[in-house]
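Supplementary Note 3. Input sequence used for the single-chain structure prediction.
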Amino acid sequence: MPHWEPLYPIVVYPVIVVAIAALLWFARRIAVAPKTGNPLLLMLRAVVLLGLVSLLLNPIDRRETVLPPRPPAVALLVDCSQSMGLGQGESRIDQVKRTIGAVTQGIQKERDIRFPMFRFGARLAKVPGLSELSATDDTSLLSDALQKLPSRVADHQTQAVVLFSDGAVDKADQLVELATAYRELGIPVHAMLPPQQDLRGDIAITELSVPPRVAKGDQATIRAVIESRGYDNERAIVSIRPANRPRSKPLASLPITLTEGATSCELVVTADPALGELAIDVPVDAGEAVAKNNRVPFQLTEKDRTLNVLYMEGTSAQESRWLQNALHVDSDIKCVAMTVNNQYAQRPSLQRIDDPYRGFPTTRAELFQYDVVICSDISFQAFTPEQIDWTVELVDRRGGGFVMIGGYTSFGAGGWDRTPWEGLIPFDMTGRRDFLNQGFQVVVPEQAQSHPIWNLLDDPARNRAALAAMPPFGGTNLISRVKPAATMLGQTRTPLSRVGVMPVFACESFGRGRTFAMSTDTTYGWGSRFEREWGEGDNRYYQKFWRNVVRWLAENSQASQKRLTLRVDQVIYSPDESIQLVVEAFDKEFKPTTEYRVTAQLVASLGDDDSSPDGVNQSSGSDATVVALDAKPTAEHYTATIPAVLPGDSDDRSSPMQTAYLVVEAWSADQKVARGSQQIQLLHRSNEWLRPQAKPDRLQAVVEAGGGRMVSSKDDLDALLRSVEIAPGEVLIHQLPLWDHWMLWTLLLSLLAIDWILRRRGV
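The predicted structure, written as discrete structure tokens, is reproduced below.
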């Protein structure tokens, strides 16, 4: 529609018209020639001048276009701090996601409305969908999010902001001021609190220490630290169960009294490889904020580990069956028995009972396949010097076990005080090369009765009775005393001729391994009743005794391991801690070596790769940082300090406890020769988990200042979002100046041309 938009005040234009009329009148009055006063010419000039005046009135053609209504928008601001991950069954963040998804999908099916979604915690970020929302941030910076949000929604279509949070946010004093600014912008701030749960606090297993290697039947001590908040002076039961049977009867349990802080405890379990992975747990309380950190899996024994025992008996092949049968009761112990062709020959030779053509191992590698070596009544002349040295190395360097049993050719009587085995034997054989055929009984000192070797029965009273019922022996080698570092496990009840009261059983640690000795025999000569009658009408205590001996001796043995072993200092690590890693590598001859290049990496999971050496799975984390270990040639191992943090997206900060794997590889040039892994637990400590209670009062203050309201349910949220009105479409105004038109200028020029022609013709 045409209209005028004068460039000057309207009063100017009448003045101009009057001035033009006066000018034309004056021009006619002073005209000299008759043609200059011609009324036709004056009329043409008046029309031209009035046309120019009309241009000064600025004629405009104005047209309006009404656009379709644009869909309104409601910004959804979701708290993604770790406190939103709390809750039993369903976490707060999951409740929020479920509610948002159900409500927004239903509304968008019926009307055109947008719901831009933002997450906040440590920072504000726009997210494309609900799947991007996870409670991973260790802080909740709501004030920072409210400051930055307007720049993200500055499209004039955002009509409201809905905040989803538990109220555990920072800088509560600034929130009211920020919410007030939103109200002044015409954008009300609403809030929805996740469905309330009566969360009291948290109970968590924060430290766990387990023996590095145990064998079946060993009594393993598990040490743990339990931290709690909100449960001061309350009782809880710490239990250990098979990891895949969380409801089974506990293998061990211990009641403790919780404090506002850390409580230490110890549990003892009997190792059994058949149980597989174990888990220590504390029951989840109905008001507990986090359930995931109440249970920690750990590996106590290696599956399918068989202990290999080399048993050499000098009495007779027939007598070896008693000890051999005792060990074979345990399916995880394999015993190879040997005897000598002539016990008292100058150079007796050993031969396997099941294969007479094979004797004592002739190579270091063959001997190192055994965990324990038992020598019963055999002269040192049956061995080469190399075989004796290898046995010492088996115990000293590879953590194996060694047993010497008494007899006419044992200890000093067999010349062992003149060999390197003298260092292995826990008895002091100085000046003693004799023996005594005299009956006696053994008494186990009270302080030694708790030793694992004497653990015959679970009931302490019955166990003491079994030890007291040990049958008498018929003779013994004479021993001066036990060595200073050794432990005496048994002695004669009464004095013997020539020596008085004498030690009979003893054990000690030697290098990485352990040794055991009994001065008497375990066969028909001196120990006939011991091997046949120690039991309950049978020899069950005798059999359990030898299984205990073997398993205690083999606790640190590396014979059943691969060419790579690794040890870490604990099971649970916090992100600010470092993993202290020690790795031992062995060459093809099972000698310790530091010639390999050894690397380690921490990954979130292990994948399946049958081609990996040693049958260890490959890691699935390709972005893990690979750490090169430092070789320590003097100590014959490698060490490294590795940060207890997973790389990138592998680090699941939404979980208070995360399983990780330390993967170690040994390389010779470019060839991988060995691989091993160790499972650990990463503990994500956060103040967000230490204050689980929601704070609705902070959200209420924000809502009141922001001109919004609290939303208490899914139906309330649905009603709120449906109440958002659709704003009318924008009106676009198009203005076109009419004076800028070719027809107008053609008319003016034509009038001027007519005026010029008429004057030239003398009109």
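The two ends are 42 Å apart (CA to CA). Residues 608-621 have pLDDT under 50 and may be disordered.
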